[in-house]
Amino acid sequence: HETGRHGPGKRFSWGGRDLTLRRGVHLRLVNVGAAPLVHSSGRLGYPVSLVTGQSRSPLASARELEEFLRAHRERYGEEVENVGFFADVVADAMCLPGVATREEAYSVLEALRVGMSRVLEMERDDLEVLVVGRPGQDDVDAILYDPMPGGSGLLEQACERWPEVAQAATEVVEKCPSGCGRSCVDCLQTFRNAFYHGHLNRHVAYERLRTLGSSLTFLHEIPARLPAETPKGRTMPV
Predict the structure, then answer these.
(1) pLDDT of 238
(2) Phi, psi (5° rounding) for residue 203?
């Protein structure tokens, strides 16, 4: 999630809901393990040798995993550990905070992403979807971020042409060529968003987009939030 560090930005009102656009947001993207195992048994991480870098899929058979652990223990005298991975990125980000459910968040974000690809000169995957929860709360933050270093300007263009983007997004979920029950490859699904296919519902997105409307009202500038002091010493922290 965001670490609280970001460059300057803008705050808008979209149908009475807050929507923010900030440059240079610091994000930590975390992979805690294979989703089926995390969801079914709470099993975290990937079996990785910190000695050799070798690994096995956590979804491999029990026999294959046991053999990998045994062989590594006998050869190196060390245990294989379950490891998670993270990447720190700095990206321009548009955030719709406090969305009631993950279904609503993923569905609206995906509809907006398709709408932007129809209005702006961009491919759908030029922007990335991120849904972030908070401990002890049911609502989530819905984030579209620009992975291009330094930003491509697509999110700023989307805000400038918001009525067109909102209208295109609404048409995506209202007029699916297949008339699907929830979502399909003709409206919201792609191979790359397979991780959250179960959360995509074009009807939920349509109702929310229709309620929010197509008007985006600028409220005020958001000042940058950066460390007060630069790191001291010969090297930057890693």
Answers:
(1) 46
(2) -70, -40
